[in-house]
Amino acid sequence: MPKGVYQRTEKNKHTKEFKDELRQRMMGNTYRRGTKLSDEQKELISEKMKGNKHLLGHKHSEESKQKMSESHKNPSDETRWGNGKATRGKHLSEEIKRKISEAHKGFKHTEESKQKMSEIKKGKNHVFYGTHRPLETRIKIGKLQRGKLHHNWQGGLVTINKIIRKCINYKEWRSKIFKRDNYTCQICSKYGDKIHAHHIRSISSIIKHHKINTLRDALICKELWDINNGITLCRKCHKELHQNKYKVGDINVSEYIRN
Questions:
Q1: Which residues lie below 8 Å from residue 84, measured CB to CB, with a gap of 6+?
Q2: Is this structure's pTM higher than 0.70?
Q3: Number of H helices, E strands in the chain
Q4: 3-state secondary structure 232-258
Q5: Average confidence score pLDDT of the chain
Q6: DSSP per residue over 123-167, as a string?
Q7: CB atoms within 10 A of CB 194
Q8: What was the pLDDT predicted at 254?
Q9: H or E, element range at 230
Q10: How far apart are CA 248 and CA 234, in angstroms?
């Protein structure tokens, strides 16, 4: 074909149906799934992509920039949940994990970058704002976070702890503590605020010490229901106590009680 400037005609443009079909084929790289590149091809691609040489000098038009911006601001559900199909279920080798780890070592975001990322993830700017995970996904996540599969699993201590806190004996113990302390925080002397009944020796420690495995074991444990092991605190003081600001834990807190 001789050199010159050729104007694209409507005849040469792809139809909307063809574009939709092509987009569907390319979702998750399904059109190349199952194919493998040779080591020579991988090396050639790697060399071409080093330093972004394949994009060197290339500039997007203002129209393209606007389209990409809009697609990122309001992605479709198909785009949100369709990403990652090509790598879903695959696992990185230990060598690749090590290389990725080494490449990220020492890298720190600037304060300006941190601020920008923070703003992008707030409210309506967040990519998932106003969307909900499918019910099937929520059920799967829930199953993966129960019992021994949970990252904070402590051998069943949390379960028996919750059972104890919901039983009638715990409610009676808490009422006795409030009544004895006249519904007043024993650290700041605040009255009428939301109050909590705090175990001086924590429930978890008592469960471990007495080897409590069932509610029946808990009901016959005298230390668990001893009102001398309880103290009334307001919500603020209770939070600060657990953050060790008062430097108290499973010890006597009588020195912090105001008479």
A1: 28
A2: no
A3: 12, 2
A4: EEEHHHHHHHHCCCCCCCCCCCHHHCC
A5: 78
A6: GGGSTTTT----HHHHHHHHHHTSGGGSTT--TTHHHHHHHHHHS
A7: 10
A8: 47
A9: strand 230-234
A10: 16
User: In a 3-state reduction of DSSP, which class is residue 191?
Assistant: strand
Alpha carbon of residue 132 to chain centroid: 15
What is the separation, in whole angstroms, between the first and last Cα of the chain?
Answer: 100
Length of the chain: 259
Give pLDDT, residue 249. Answer: 43
Backbone angles phi, psi at 232, to 5 degrees: -85, 130
> What pLDDT, on the 0 to 100 scale, is given for residue 8?
56
d(CA 211, CA 218): 9
Predicted pLDDT at 52: 57
Structure tokens belonging to residue 224: 């668990």
Residues 6+ apart with CB under 8 A from 214: 160
Q: Is 207 exposed, middle or buried (0-12, 13-18, 19+ CB in 10 A)?
A: buried
Mean pLDDT of all residues in 54-78: 74
- If you search the block for the tokens 């175990």, which residue do you land on? 199
In this structure, what are the phi and psi dihedrals at residue 62, rounded to the nearest 5 degrees? -60, -35
Q: Which residue's entry shows tokens 């978890």?
A: 204
> Rounded to whole angstroms, how far apart are CA atoms 219 and 206?
12
Tokens of 30: 């399904």
Residue 196 has φ and ψ, to the nearest 5°, of: -125, 150
Q: Quick one: which H or E segment has residue 196?
A: strand 195-199
Q: Are 214 and 160 in contact (CB under 8 A)?
A: yes
- 196 forms beta bridges with 233
CA distance 178 to 231: 8
